[in-house]
What we know:
Elements: E1 2-3, H1 6-15, E2 19-22, H2 29-44, E3 49-53, E4 69-72, E5 93-97, H3 107-113, E6 119-122, E7 133-136, H4 143-153, H5 160-173, H6 184-195, H7 200-209, H8 213-224, E8 227-229, E9 234-239, H9 241-247, H10 251-261, E10 269-275, E11 281-287, H11 293-298, E12 303-304, E13 308-313, H12 317-337
Parallel strand pairs: 1-7, 2-3, 2-5, 3-4, 5-6, 6-7, 9-10
Antiparallel strand pairs: 8-9, 10-11, 11-13, 12-13
Helix pairs in contact: 1-4, 2-4, 2-5, 4-5, 5-6, 5-7, 8-9
Amino acid sequence: MIFIDLKTAAARLRAAEAVRILTHGHPDGDTLGSAFALAHALRALKKPVTVLCEDPIPAMFAYMRADVAYEILGEKNQDPPDDGANRQPAAGFLISVDVADENLLGPAALSRFGGQVRLNIDHHATNTLFAAETLLDPSAAATAEIVSDLIDLMGVRMDTLMAACLYAGVSTDTGCFRYYNTTARSHRYAARYMELGVETEPLDRAFFETESRSYMALERLAFDGLRYFAEGRIALIAVTQAMFAQSGSNDEEYIKLVARTRQIEGVQVGVALRERRDGTYKISLRSHETVDAAAICARMGGGGHSRAAGCASELPLEDTIRRVVGFVEEAIKGVQGC
Ligand SMILES: [Mn+2]
C-alpha cells in the first residue's frame, strides 16, 4: 500500500522485461483505452505485453487491440484461440488500470491474480489500495489522462492508435465531455489526441449514439410503463424478465435505461427496477446534485455514489415501488425544507 508518482511508475514500466495489464471486468472505454494505449507504448519499447480481462472486448472498442495479446479470463467467456500468433503464456510485471477495488476484476481474474498486482494506475478517490504500489490521481477525469502523462514520461512517442485508445477513455468517462468531472485538462488531452490524427466523430458516434435494436426494443417496453411521482420529481421504470426475453436485450444495455430516467425535465430522481431471475428486484437510483442517492439506498441496505446508487428488494413489485418512492419523497422533501 504505497503511493508512487508518475516518474516512479514510468521507471517501473521501463525496468520491466514483460508486462501483464489487468482491466476491470465488464470493461469500459477507460479501462480498455488505458490498457491498450499502455500496451502499444510498451511494445514500442520492445516489451512483450498481454492485456488480461474477465470479459470480451465490446465491439465499439475492438479497434484498440490491433495485434496485442488479449486473454479472456472468465471461464464462461473462453473463445477458441484466434490466430495463434499471440498465444505465448502470459508472464511479466503485473499491473492494473482503472480498477478501484480488486473485486471489480471479476471472479476468474480475482482467483488467479488476487493479491498479486504490483502496480495499480487509477483515478477513483475510493480506491482500496489493493496493489503493492498505487499511482492515484483522483483529479483526473479518466485513468487515460494519467496514462497519457505516463507514456510521455516513459519516453515513448505517442502515435495515432495510442491517442485513439486514450481518447476513448477520456470521452467515455466524461460522458462525451458533459459530466461534472470534465475539466479544462480533459479538453486539452482531447485536443492533443485530435492533433495526433484521431478522428473523434466516428468514435463518439459508436460510443454514444448508435444503439442496438434490442436496446431500442427494451427502451420502448420499459418507457411504455413510465410512471411519475411527487409532482413529476420522480420518474420510475420497471423492467421485467419478460421484457428482457421479448426484446432480446441484456443487463449491460439496461444500465443505459437507468440513466434515461434522470434526463426527463423536472425529474430530480430517476428510479429503475430490474426483475432478477429469482423474482427479486434490483433498484437503481440516479439523482441530480440536490438529492443524495447513496443515502436513500443506504436506508434499504444498499449504497453507491451521491448521484448514482443501488439496492435490492425481495418485496413484490408494487410494494417495492411504494417503499422506494416513499424514501425518495422523504429525501426530496428534506432538501426542500432546508
Ligand atoms: Mn475510469
